[in-house]
Amino acid sequence: MYRLLEGMTVVEGSAFVAGPSCALHLAQMGAKVIRFDQIGGGPDSRRWPLGPNGESLYWEGLNKGKLSIALDLRKPEGRELAQRLATGGDGLFVTNFPVDGFLSHESLKALRADLIAVRVMGWADGSPAVDYTVNAAIGMPAMTGPAGDARPVNHVLPAWDLVTGCYGAFALLAAERERADSGKGREIRVALSDIAATSLANLGNLAEVILSGADRPRSGNNLFGAFGRDFVAKDGVGFMLVAITPRQWSGMLTGLGIAEDVEALERELGIDFARDEGARFVHRAKLDPLVEAGFARFSADELERQFAEAGVTWSRYHTLHEALSAEPRLFADNPVFAQTAHPGGASYPAPGAPARIPGEDRGTVRPAPVIGANTDEVLADFLGLDSGAIGALHDAGVVG
Which CATH class, in words, describes the domain spanning 9-200+335-395? Predict the structure, then answer.
């Protein structure tokens, strides 16, 4: 954990990916994050993947380094405590609770006018949605998959959740900076639907279909608009190869020993692949067989040596389990990770902040808390309650 945000306190009342990842980014930069949970765990506290003792590895991963207070949010007293938490301390709140209700911005700003609240939503109009339903609505599964197959292909990465979490952290810090000058609080609503729509527009996908009047056809594993695809070595090992820049292109030709074959194809077509990356995609049906033949002449180990010498951009295909040992830059030799004992009982590598800041001590990776582990600490230190008041809340079942 870095110390860039040391002294900042953020309260989190959220579940699933976007909200917890937003607060996780802040915690890993040094903010104290206090999350409130339903006694016994909220809707995401037992989500898969599960560990050997039935613990949610998902929950442990998204809530590292945070403090947890457990409330009974079904009780008015529990909801009142949640409101006090959300508006206490620095007045910074991250949530995915509905726009209306006891954690609405109108209810909270009546308690603290300068409150900054980042509210993660599904659809911007308040309709429920998750990453996978937004992805289906915007058309990504129709772009993904083998050519000539109309079935939608969902991918397993919740991209809009993850981008929303990052954007939410950015938005909170932007609003906090403004408040330092103006004293003004505000609510910032970040919807998965808006993140998806703006992301595709920023990448040119929206303009593409508007101006062409048609959807982009599927192209399997080919990199759209450039050269990139999966290929197989002589010994059956799969590689992903990408050549976008002229340097990557020339390195590929050298590494595979196919420069003369490609030059002959260029003369036949009257084009220069080195100058026009789009032409590599347009003529992939003729170009791919030359690359396939190059791969078929060498074993995977031979290709790796040749690619390293020629400066090729490539990677072997791995499963995640294979990557643990096959690619030490990702995990084994990556200083972002540290072996960590987690609340569910297992010990495994966990990441701190993914940013690398030269000269800055990245600190210790702190595990997620047991739900409710910090209840008494938060009630006393953050809300200023004495031991008698805390005991009464426990006796009434309001906190756990």
Answer: alpha beta
Annotated catalytic residue 333: no
Q: What dihedral do alpha carbons 328, 334, 340, 342 form, nearest 10°?
A: -80
Active-site residue (options: 161, 235, 288, 381)? 161
Domain extent listing, the chain:
9-200+335-395, 227-316
Question: Residue-wise pLDDT tens for the chain (400 aa)?
Answer: 899 999 999 999 999 999 999 999 999 999 999 999 999 999 999 999 999 999 999 999 999 999 999 999 999 999 999 999 999 999 999 999 999 999 999 999 999 999 999 999 999 999 999 999 999 999 999 999 999 899 999 989 999 999 999 999 999 999 999 999 999 999 999 999 999 999 999 999 999 999 999 999 999 999 999 999 999 999 999 999 999 999 999 999 999 999 999 999 999 999 999 999 999 999 999 999 999 999 999 999 999 999 999 999 999 999 999 999 999 999 999 999 999 999 999 999 999 999 999 999 999 999 999 999 999 999 999 999 999 999 999 999 999 9
Query: Hey, which bits of the chain come out as E strands?
Result: 9-13, 32-38, 67-71, 92-95, 116-121, 186-191, 227-232, 238-243, 313-316, 337-341, 347-351
Residue 82 in contact with residue 372, Cβ under 8 Å? no
Domain boundaries 227-316, CATH class:
alpha beta
Instruction: State residue 270 phi and psi, 5-degree precision.
Output: 70, 35
Residue 72 has φ and ψ, to the nearest 5°, of -95, 95
For residues 94 and 170, what is the distance between their CA atoms, to the nearest angstrom? 12
